[in-house]
Write a structure and sequence with these properties.
By secondary structure, this protein is α/β, with parallel strands linked by helices. The protein folds into 3 domains: about 130 residues, Immunoglobulin-like (Sandwich), CATH 2.60.40; about 350 residues, TIM Barrel (Alpha-Beta Barrel), CATH 3.20.20; about 130 residues, Galactose-binding domain-like (Jelly Rolls), CATH 2.60.120.260. It has an 8-stranded parallel beta barrel, surrounded by 5 helices. Strands 26, 28, 29, 31, 32, 33 and 35 form a 7-stranded antiparallel beta sheet that branches. Helix 7 packs parallel to helix 8 and helix 10 runs parallel beside helix 11. The radius of gyration is 27 Å and the shape is globular. It binds alpha-L-arabinofuranose. Alpha-L-arabinofuranose (AHR) binds next to loops.
């Protein structure tokens, strides 16, 4: 977390009449236990979040399986696409390059995912391709890194001497830094060459893995300390049609043989078409589980429930043909948790992870609705309870946070006794302010709430301070109701600045840089300071949920013996408050100095940019604690996390 030692408003002496001083009373008696997995991330391959983003592969369409097999490639000379005797059964297309020994050269050049590939001078890159010669004699291939200005920067030569498919690997150093470089392969000697699965990764991926992830992006996730990690979406789970739904079994095993799929974000928004956006499944379920393990998040996979996107095809699997779908869910649990003698557990072990991943959550269906969803969900619940009784099932309340489907689905989910109900809300800041009390009256006996997709959508659709502040204010209500809201994930997570379909998003990036938004920092403040138990915080006996622009909640952290209070002041003027701690025992006292982390801006439209990435970041201040009181001046338009350790009296 980037923190500046500033005190600004929080310590400033401001002329506010004493009568305006407000007292927020915090009872120090611990209440409900807070789910340690509470705040997390929602990941989907949208905005080039996986292919072209988190997944560190630099070659687009490496297997020649897009609808137009040479999309992403510039072929030159005699080039054809073949399928006869392929290297990989599930990715059958490959390219044949014929070099006749004339003036012309035959070869291929790849443009990377979004306007080139990021190569960094002196860094190593691992090139892998599969090839066989069709001609009598060996064929020599020249591999080059080319700058955006078309100058070769690094080259190497490979002799393909096998008449059978063979894997060729070489590590090359980039001669220059260029975020828009290209990869070129040229046949140099007379002959015919078949080539497939042309892949280029930085050697320096997260944890140095070969089929690895972009280090800077994983670092940003790691720094969030997410409790839970939802994957693979989102609408991608549903597919536009059932054929294009996400099928987890296609995303495991050798990467070369994972069949390509459409990516619906290629064509969902007509005003933002990305015809070259597909899913390679290179970042598949195995890589996902590893990532969760690396960053300490609990995986929460979501699977198709037998319905294609209801906004699009709405295709339904007949109820008596649901078995393979239900079996997919049971098998996924086996892949994650089964011992190595089981079919799917042994695949996990062969992929390199004999120990179970300890999966405990599973979502069935994304934004589904209607009786057709409930009927199908029931089949999953019945089978999962029988075969995987430890798995906590997440059902759905549809695409909206209210309305007819929401009202219909909640009681139905209760009837099915799912463990969690997924709620989605992409709403304006005003909605977030108005809904800080949303969960105060929720039924405590039914399924718990999983706020599975939410984000404040300012009319500008920017990740600006207003959006972040309204999320911070709203989350005080989530925290206050942490007994009923047990999981929450902001959505979507990632977006490429030059290739997005949906915004706002929590983390932006380009080929070489990462940009953290004010929304990211709000999530991080909650995640790092979630505490272990709720504390009752009131003003004049009532929860603080927007009265005179103040939103507040408090937690106790048993691990560090600290009280943590969160307060958002959404007014455009400062406010004087006194935090009063009620119920301190005889031997309990508060440390005389509180630590404050806060975000503030006079400009609600302020955003972080690559030029000024720290425009809105948490800053650090302090405040005096006098016995059981902590007086504060809250800056206008600010969110603060006030941390006060307990000290034991002798
Ligand atoms: O987060 C983007 C999309 O919003 C998700 O794919 C979908 O579930 C929701 O409508």
């Amino acid at each position: 977390m980037q923190l500046k030692r500033l005190s600004l408003w929080l310590l400033a002496a401001v002329a506010i009449p004493l009568s305006a001083q407000r007292t927020l009373t915090v009872s120090v008696k611990p209440g409900a236990e807070i789910n340690p997995d509470m705040y997390g991330v929602f990941f989907e391959d949208i905005n080039f979040g996986a292919d072209g983003g988190l997944y560190a592969e630099l070659v687009k369409n490496r297997s020649f399986e897009f609808d137009y097999p040479l999309m992403g490639w510039t072929p030159f000379g005699e080039v054809s696409v073949e399928t006869e005797a392929p290297a990989f059964e599930k990715n059958p297309h490959y390219v044949r390059l014929t070099e006749k020994g004339t003036y012309k050269r035959a070869g291929l050049q790849n443009e990377g995912f979004v306007d080139g590939m990021n190569l960094v001078r002196g860094k190593e890159y691992r090139l892998v391709f599969y090839a066989r010669r069709q001609s009598e004699r060996p064929v020599r291939v020249k591999v080059e890194f080319i700058t955006a200005a078309n100058n070769p920067m690094t080259s190497a030569k490979v002799e393909v001497d096998s008449p059978e498919w063979q894997k060729y690997t070489l590590v090359m150093k980039a001669g220059k830094s260029d975020a828009h470089a290209r990869l070129r392969l040229t046949v140099e000697t007379k002959g015919v060459l078949d080539i497939d699965h042309v892949s280029l990764f930085p050697v320096d991926t997260w944890n140095g893995r070969e089929n690895g992830l972009r280090k800077d992006l994983v670092q940003a996730l790691y720094d969030l300390k997410p409790g839970v990690f939802r994957f693979p979406g989102g609408c991608i789970v549903e597919g536009s049609t059932l054929d294009t739904r996400y099928q987890w079994k296609n995303s495991v095993g050798p990467v070369e043989n994972r069949p390509y799929n459409d990516n619906r974000w290629n064509y969902t928004f007509r005003h933002r078409l990305y015809p070259d956006y597909y899913q390679s499944y290179g970042l598949g379920f195995y890589e996902y589980f590893l990532l969760c393990e690396d960053i300490g998040a609990e995986p929460l996979p979501v699977l198709n429930c037998g319905i294609g996107c209801q906004y699009q095809s709405g295709e339904l699997v007949p109820l008596d043909e649901m078995d393979p779908y239900v079996q997919d869910a049971i098998d996924l649990v086996e892949f994650a948790n089964g011992d190595t003698t089981t079919t799917w557990g042994s695949l996990r072990a062969r992929m390199g992870h004999p120990e179970p991943f300890g999966l405990k959550y599973l979502g069935i269906g994304n934004e589904q609705w209607g009786e057709e969803f409930v009927q199908r969900e029931a089949l999953f619940v019945e089978a999962l309870r029988k075969h995987c009784p430890d798995i906590r099932i997440v059902g759905s309340s549809g695409p909206s946070a209210d309305g007819e489907q929401f009202e219909y689905l909640w009681p139905e989910m209760k009837r099915l006794k799912v463990d969690f109900v997924d709620e989605h809300y992409y709403k304006p800041p005003e909605w977030f302010y108005a809904n800080a009390g949303r969960y105060d009256d929720y039924d405590r006996k039914g399924p718990k709430v999983y706020a599975g997709e939410y984000a404040s959508h300012h009319k500008s659709k920017e990740n600006n301070f207003e959006a972040a502040l309204s999320e911070a204010a709203f989350l005080t209500g989530v925290e206050r109701n942490a007994d009923v809201v047990r999981l929450a994930t902001y959505a979507p997570l990632l977006a490429h600045v030059d290739a997005w379909q949906w915004r706002p998003d929590m983390i932006w990036f380009d080929n070489s840089r990462v940009l953290l938004t004010p929304n990211y920092y709000v999530q991080q403040l909650y995640s790092l300071h979630k505490g272990t138990h709720t504390l009752r915080l009131t003003e004049n006996g009532a929860a603080v949920k927007g009265q005179e622009s103040l939103y507040a909640s408090a937690v106790y952290d048993a691990d560090s013996a600290r009280i943590i209070v969160k307060v958002a002041n959404t007014a455009s003027h400062p406010q004087e408050v006194v935090l009063r701690f009620d119920g301190l025992k005889r031997r309990q006292a508060l440390q005389p100095q509180a630590e404050i982390l806060y975000m503030q801006s006079d400009d609600k439209n302020a955003v972080n940019t690559f030029k000024n990435p720290s425009a809105i970041v948490p800053q650090r201040a302090g405040a005096a604690v006098e016995g059981d009181r902590c007086p504060l001046t809250l800056a206008p338009q600010s969110f603060q996390v006030i941390i006060i350790p307990f000290v034991s009296k002798p």
